[in-house]
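Propose amino acids for all 539 sites.
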């Protein structure tokens, strides 16, 4: 019995691995289909990230083997740089470990719990280790990895080491209690959307149900590499500032030079401004001597300075031409409209960009799609947690009536939204939904409304053409009778009158805009110029 007296006898520490063992659903391991798609998602995003980092055109092979009922073996192979022997254990068998968490760069992974989460899930459902073969700088290492839950440390069994001229990582793991199905939550749909947003990737899927499926690359051009930026002062908390100051205390002797080097857009001029705004902090002291109180004051000072916005050219969207291409290839729609917004900033200092595409009619209806929202974050498809996502909510809340679309859910329409950022505000560790950040929501709304205007123009043009044709037909019906009557009355030739009347009708209904004004087009989302321009001079 635990009573109030001895409850603290139960006081224990636990590791992050133990936490996620108990809360697997937070990593996306809930539901049989979702769990398997999550595993594929984690390994494939890692492969594309690794190739992007190394400037390699990704060749990814996803091999799923059915070993028994709800029992599968998954192998994901890439041609990336591989992982060095010193790090492969931590990369796959330690949670919150990786090369991405501390960096300010547009990447698919950001937390360091993807691969290790899968390794954990595999062990917890099958009792088996995850196998990896890493070809890195001329050597191939084969090993087995497990996580020690108590310490959140990898347990390694090195199997072999041999020379190789290949590069890349191959990870093999088994899962029980999972299901492979052809649905919009399944592996194929996930890979198809991945290919849509990453046209430079070649993806092969060995499907145990249907055989080999190839999603070849549609461009040989490697997209420009997103690059790392330094944090912007407006995104900094007192603790961030304190930590950064202490971190750089040996590198920079003065707080002023630390600020200029560790953050973006801090010039010597801005430091002078800060000195005036925060007179009781000594900007010449060693960064190690910065106190919490100092940090609070400096951060307050940050809020009063007019900063140049953070560099946004570090972001790489999918691109207008590519979205159009992909939509045409996948759906053969009647119409595609794509909008790319200019980059913006949320929470004061985090750059992001939103692009949206709408495909309408044609093959969309034929494919049975209605009111579909295809969500992407840093080019990664988001298939789950639909209703809690700012992208879905924003798209559904748009007044589609304004755009000649009666009911979004019943229209033959597919809306794609990609949010690219150095830090995506996910709602949870499973990274399937975007949080309701106001600036981000606004941009999503504007991007989709802008594209919707294109659809509106097209539909109202189509409707008008149809109306005109109907009216013309109606009038043409009277030509015969009217000409006879007129001929009788005037004694003129009926043929001549028919000809003249037809000319008048042709003339009247051929002129564009002849039948009244253009429909009013919603203009409320026009992109305004950013208030600040990027000169890049302060980086
Ligand atoms: N296919 C791969 N090729 C090269 N490095 C990889 C690969 N997969 C994982 N890694 C390395 O392992 C780390 C941990 O991966 P992961 O647990 O998925 O976390 P995250 O992707 O969020 O950083 C990555 O940061 C990366 O350094
Ligand atoms: Mg990852």
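Proposal:
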């Amino acid at each position: 019995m635990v009573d109030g007296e001895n409850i603290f006898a139960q006081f224990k520490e636990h590791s992050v691995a133990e936490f996620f063992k108990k809360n697997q659903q937070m990593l996306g391991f809930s539901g049989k289909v979702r769990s398997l798609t999550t595993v594929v998602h984690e390994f494939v995003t890692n492969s594309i990230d690794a190739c992007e980092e190394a400037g390699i055109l990704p060749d990814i092979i996803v091999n799923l083997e059915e070993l028994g009922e709800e029992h599968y073996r998954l192998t994901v192979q890439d041609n990336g740089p591989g992982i060095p022997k010193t790090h492969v254990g931590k990369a796959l068998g330690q949670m919150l470990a990786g090369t991405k968490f501390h960096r300010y760069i547009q990447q698919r992974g950001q937390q360091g719990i993807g691969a290790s989460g899968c390794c954990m899930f595999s062990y917890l459902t099958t009792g088996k280790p995850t196998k990896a073969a890493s070809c890195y700088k001329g050597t191939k290492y084969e090993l087995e990895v497990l996580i020690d839950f108590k310490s959140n440390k990898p347990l390694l069994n090195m199997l072999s080491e041999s020379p190789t001229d290949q590069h890349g990582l191959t990870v093999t793991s088994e899962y029980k209690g999972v299901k492979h199905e052809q649905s919009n939550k399944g592996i194929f749909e996930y890979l198809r959307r991945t290919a849509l947003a990453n046209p430079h990737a070649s993806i092969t899927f060995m499907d145990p149900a249907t055989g080999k499926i190839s999603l070849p690359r549609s461009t040989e051009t490697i997209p420009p590499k997103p690059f790392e930026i330094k944090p912007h002062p407006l995104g900094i908390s007192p603790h961030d500032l304190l930590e950064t100051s202490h971190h750089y205390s040996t590198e920079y002797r003065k707080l002023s030079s630390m600020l200029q080097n560790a953050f973006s857009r801090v010039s010597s001029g801005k430091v002078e401004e800060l000195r005036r705004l925060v007179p009781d902090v000594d900007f010449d002291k060693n960064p190690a001597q910065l106190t919490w109180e100092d940090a609070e004051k400096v951060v307050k000072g940050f809020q009063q300075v007019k900063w140049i916005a953070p560099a946004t050219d570090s972001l790489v969207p999918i691109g207008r031409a590519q979205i159009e291409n992909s939509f045409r290839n996948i759906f053969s729609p009647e119409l595609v409209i794509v909008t790319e917004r200019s980059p913006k900033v949320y929470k004061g200092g985090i750059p992001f960009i939103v692009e949206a595409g709408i495909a309408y009619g044609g093959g969309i209806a034929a494919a049975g799609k209605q009111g579909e929202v295809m969500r992407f974050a840093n080019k990664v498809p988001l298939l789950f947690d639909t209703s809690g996502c700012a992208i879905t909510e924003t798209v559904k809340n748009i007044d589609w009536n304004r755009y000649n679309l009666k009911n979004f859910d019943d229209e033959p329409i597919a809306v794609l939204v990609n949010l690219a950022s150095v830090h995506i505000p996910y709602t949870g560790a499973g990274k399937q939904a975007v949080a309701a950040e106001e600036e981000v929501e606004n941009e999503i709304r504007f991007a989709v409304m802008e594209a919707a205007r294109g659809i509106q123009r097209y539909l109202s043009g189509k409707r008008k053409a149809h109306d005109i044709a109907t009216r013309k037909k109606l009038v043409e019906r009277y030509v015969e009778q009217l000409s006879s009557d007129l001929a009788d009355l005037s004694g003129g030739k009926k043929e001549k009158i028919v000809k003249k009347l037809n000319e008048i009708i042709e003339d009247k209904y051929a002129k564009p805009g002849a039948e009244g004004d253009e429909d009013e087009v919603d203009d409320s989302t026009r992109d305004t110029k950013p208030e600040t321009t990027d000169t890049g001079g302060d980086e």
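Residues 477-510 form one domain. Residues 134 and 442 are 43 Å apart (CA to CA).
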